[in-house]
Amino acid sequence: MSILVDKSTRLVVQGITGGEGTFHTHQMIDYGTKVIAGVTPGKGGLVYNGSDQYPFKKPVPVFNTVADAVKNEGANTSIIFVPAGFAAEAIMEAAEAGIKLIVAITEGIPARDMVKVYEYLQRTGTRMIGPNCPGIISPGKCKVGIMPGFIHKPGTVGIISRSGTLTYEAVWQVTQLGLGQSTCIGIGGDPIIGTRFIDALKLFKDDDGTEAVIMIGEIGGTAEEEAADYIKKNFKKPVIGFIAGRTAPPGRRMGHAGAIISGGKGTAAEKMVAMKKAGIHVVESPALIGEMVKKVLGKKVSKKSKKLEGKSKK
Amino acid sequence: MKIHEYQGKEILRKYNVPTPLGGVAFSVDEAVKVAQSIGGSSTSLTTGSSTSLTTGSSTSLTTGSSTPFTMWVVKAQIHAGGRGKGGGVKVAKSLDEVRQLASQILGMRLITHQTGPEGKIVKRLLIEQGISIAKELYVGITLDRAKSQNVVMASTEGGVEIEKVAAETPEKILKETVNPSIGFKDFQARKLAFGLGLSGDTLKNAVKFFLALYRAYEESDASLAEINPLVITTDGQVLALDAKMNFDDNALFRHPDILEMRDLDEEEPLEIEASKYNLNYIKLDGNVGCMVNGAGLAMATMDIIKLAGGEPANFLDVGGGANVETVSNGFKIILSDKNVKAVLINIFGGIVRCDRVANGVIEAAKQVNVTLPVVVRLDGTNAKEAREILANSGLNFAVASSFEDAAHKVTQAIKN
After folding, report:
1. Residue B248 contacts A, CB cutoff 8 Å
2. What is the ipTM for the molecules in this complex?
3. Is the pTM of this model over 0.95?
């Protein structure tokens, strides 16, 4: 089992004809995701085959609006590669068109725009993942994002993370130990995001296919503390946690717009304490995430399999 | 992005937020000139030469005392709090004293709890009209991340660190959350003003102040607008005695005027250099340089260096690509830091293949002529081939087999 994306996902790519949009559409189609439409205003009617360098296995019809993609192709999920200055509009357009799940990859959307987007999505009841995130993948079923597909393997570990490459690191550790993932969500590194730890946890709670969850947080904000509180009260499955940034100086933005200790709040130490108190298996070293999962699940797993099992798609 | 107090006040004046009269000075002579221009009669106010005066609207001029005054405040302009305690804010009772204090503060090494022990050299002064204060309050606006909405906070506990108030007496901070679909409303501003115990004209002035401040915050894409202290003068005016404004870096493309306020003297030279290469670099005090793709993994790499007994020298995210150009620029920046004794490269090759990254690293190391020990850890696509390429490169690379191994190898390299 998995959450949010699977074989029933019908994906529209907003910004499909751009460089990023083209490359990642190519990758997603290769992974087996049903990319059924693209949107680039002014290019409606085009049947897009990708670029010479990144040709699509299957052509994708392009529409001027998300509403057209929904009407003609039955899109239910959208991924956004639109530049930062226009991304807020793109998100709202998707929500207005009735898309149920929006995955916003774009980095650098102004907070003032996101405050309005967030409010609008509450009204339309649309779920958003990101922005400034790698996306979401249910291994072997569907990839809506920019993560390398082959490092994943179908399994029973759910992963929620504010980071990109650090998530890949955790995924890879899990895969190399012979375990796999149910769904991995990169929730994004911005101060305003659509799906927080707590929201993803609620979904994993009801997913029979998820036995344990890895939660990778970082400095800034209090989302980890809120999630810890929720876990303590409501979440019975084992949770393995790591917080990046214990060596980060206060008042500095560590790459992600949301990764900043401000007014002495949002430190790694505070978050780790809250998580440990909630019974989360917190690892001090990012190299030990996979091993902790293995220990917690108590599974006998064969040593590193050299075969890259994720490659075999189902 | 951070700006100076005087720049913050220039922005506030544009939105009719009342501030004391004042202007910036880069030299002692300029300081005296500004003091003269703001301290004279009301006619000299309108002909004031400093930019802040001419950009100030008529409201900001009339909120200052219109009668000649004989007290000025000389304020050091650095991007750090605690300037008063550090001796960077002084009151002058004559123009001679303005001259004397300006020459004393300009060029001084100002050390506050936020500057670190090395302090900061004062290169700019704000010369302001002295204000007769009846009450010191607090007002601040920022994003409440838990609610994904802006919040306006006010407190009777002005002039002290608000973090301390929040920790010890949170009930003394009044909060109004702003729903973006309706904005910050008059009734909310009134709730805050009444909550602060204000009445009469002072209350009306405070309401106007809060609304204007919110507009300034919102329209300039600020991430913080903090007025501490917000003062009530003895004649019932409400003024921003201090002004701290930070801006959302993601929105600066909409504000070329604010971007121009960037003061490179306030930034680490290596960070300025790195930003020219579009590298995300933050200098730290340790001796292990690190180069990583992705911000989260970069932070985690710093953490694991510390766990292994080393001290990270920097945060550096070279982005997804990690090609010859970015890696050689990364090397240049890291090696310019003389504290660095060894370098750890940690790249998770997902979509970018590790063998390509390995060739890039080798090429970059040759270009930059790296002589320090370098530990490289590549994992992901084609990691095995990449390790072989590195091992056979003939360069001084230690190839790590895992994340943990990399941290141990690099801290070992420092001890040798």
Report:
1. yes
2. 0.90
3. no
